[in-house]
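Why run this: before we spend reagent on co-expression, it is cheaper to look at a predicted model of the complex and decide which construct boundaries make sense. The entries below are exactly what would go into the expression plan.
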Amino acid sequence: MVVPLGYLIVRAAEADAATLVEMLWRRRTWVLLRNTLGLTGGVVALSALVALPLAWLTVRTDLPARRLVTLLAVTPLAIPGYVMAHALLGLGGTNGMAAAVGITMQRPSGFWGATIALTLYAYPYVFLNVRASLLTLDPGLEESARSLGYSPRSVFARVVLPMLVPGLIAGSLIVALYALGDFGAVALMRFEVFSFAIYTQYAGAFDRVYASALALVLVLLAVGPLILETRLLGSVRFARTGSGVARRQRVTRLAAMKPVAILFVAVVIAASVGLPTVSLLYWMGLRSPWGELPRLIAYFGNSVAASAPAALLAVVAAIPLAYLRVRYPGKRSILAERTAYLGYAIPPLALALGMVFFSLRVVPFLYQTLALLVVAYAMNFLALALGPIRSQLLLAPRRLEEAARSLGRSPIAAFVTAILPVLQRGILASLTLVFVMAMKELPIAFLLAPTGFTTLSVAVFSRTSEAMFAEAAPYAAAIVVFSALFVGLMLRYEGQEINEAS
Amino acid sequence: MASCKGLLARPVGAVRGHRLGAIALALTVAITGGLYAAGTRQDANTITLYSGRGESLVAPLIEEFQRETGITVAVRYGGTAELAVLLQEEGARSPADLFWAQDAGALGAVANGGLLRGLPDDVFAGVPTIYRGGRGLWIATSGRARVLAYSPTAVTNDGFPTSVFDLTDPQYRGRVGWAPTNGSFQSFITAMRVEHGDDSTQRWVEAMIANDVQSYRSNTAIVEAIAAGEVAFGITNNYYLLRFQASDPDFPVAQRFFAPGDTGNLVNVAGVGVIAGSANTENAERFVRFLLDRSAQQYFTSEVYEYPITDAVAQNPRLESFARLLEVSPQIELDRLEDLEGTLALLRRAGAL
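The model came back. Tokens follow.
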């Protein structure tokens, strides 16, 4: 993580201070900054509002088709940004989908357009994190609270909700960093934010010096949410302390609220998965996709060959980081873990250029090899892997390792035998997140993939950038379908666990 | 019974261990397979092309070139801007032999960094001024004209501006779209600075903003916004609309030029140059010549809806003729469009960026 940061500092140091001041010290910067903060806050709040009920409904209630809803709630992660934004844009306007059924509405744009577009594909981060916490929650706590005379509602507010805080915060942190850095969807919604300035500098001026300086400002902005999260999580304890075994989750009957719940789920899914699917199908219908099949299969292989090892590497790196942070919280472990989050806050293009800079000087034989691409992905997405694992660790009582140690196991063996199995749900969520994100990642693949190694996401880009949406659609659809299948596989595995218990 | 399934009671690594093991095995296979795939290294008969042009446009040409010459082309696809920055970062260590870019600005930035080798003089023979750089470091492979796109339903015949400068008129208030972050737009602003000076250009940009011009992410987004009825006009490149119409003939947008010679009709280019550090310049130059050759030029105009750099090819009926293009476009040498820094600073001062 020091490599890309160091790179940014080296490059930014070449900047001429006067020019930099001229770029940044103007009224418009404050407008961009205000927009950026507003957008970040809006997306975090809206994502929580969508993800919390959705997670609770799919884990703890008798909502129909819960497994399917869970799958669909994670699917937006796999949808390439341009598909989501175009789907939303395609809804309004005189030639839009709404106009086709006789409703005249404006195309979404500005603050709300951008907030909704980002929320629709960022809320699954919160959903996955909260869900992992909910699944691990000990129902004994709630039962104790009930036996002490609390109503179901106040049990939820006073017992369940506080226990979901680590997951909620971990998810929100990712959403916040994501909203800070996103350019594509926000620009399509015509809402001008700070990432605008960085994008213009790279894409307009082909300039890496001032772009680096601006990227450092963005990294500084990201430090805010990181400190906030550390403060919020600081001294809270979440692990169960009782002896014996956690009981199985109880299912809440929705009864009269069921139609309301179904309507809520339907609206969220229709907007986040339904709209983009319709838009993709429309583009696919314009042109027969079958001629692309052999190429598509080859690119799919490339995408998986980069994404799967990246997911594994990110998780392997995340486990010790999260473990040290939770069990031995000190300045150093906190700093190490926070730095990992910075990898996600650095604009991917800057991170990739940092790796180019580093590898050409230090390990030239690795330059533009798959190995380097995998490492860059793992660094970029390490933060995604940390969240679910750490939330699970916070819920795992320290006595587990102590018991293993007292039976004569070494610290590492104690970790492997006692803690690792408890982390499985978190590990699965982490693998899924990183894999799905790497499948659609773009700028890092541009710069670091082996030459001639085209991934699905690059194939999508090199068609949409020429306004060839019909040609891009099969590749975009492949990303969505295969990512959804991967998520489905993970959920199925997890589902067996739950079934065993019932 | 449920209690037996609890955390401590579970026999560690039994059933679930197998499943995790299977996943780990699958990932290992993927890693090894991937590393093997990446292991294909290049030889003397291979040239490496960094292409800012999209794969769907480039791939058929590459296949043709490989068939004709027996030279293998390894292509790295990416955004023109990303690849231009990458080439600067790689410097002398770049594995690339060629850079094929979507716009003059990117080639200019790479050329100014001393990263282009220069092309033999005969390559430029017979190529019109608008397609030539004075320094001979790179050459245009095709042209894309700036045009005024409009909504045929929202605009009546007497409502068309004759010059791009007319768009600041009150009758266009809130009805025009532009894409200030887009490279072609910025090249157009640079052209305006070259022809009319920085002061007039800045005044025009400020007047456009005061006239409530609508900003979009890209040319595609402008064309879509016109179709959706959000704006009536847009200043964009000529080929986006034609590509929309290729898949949807009823797409409700039309386009036209401003008066002949107006800056609003600037011809932007896609172009190619040989990288200074190339160890394979002979084959790289063969590829450049191949792109300038008749069959490739015919392909650019027939399939990609761009203007050829020569009139030796059959005209695409959906495009204006080569002669008409030379008549309407302002006569500006490509090298003079390189000062993007100045353009960005101007756009920032005017509040467009």
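Residues 2-238+257-501 of chain A form a domain with the MetI-like fold fold (CATH 1.10.3720.10). Chain A touches chain B through 93 residues (CB under 8 Å). Bring this page to Monday's planning discussion.
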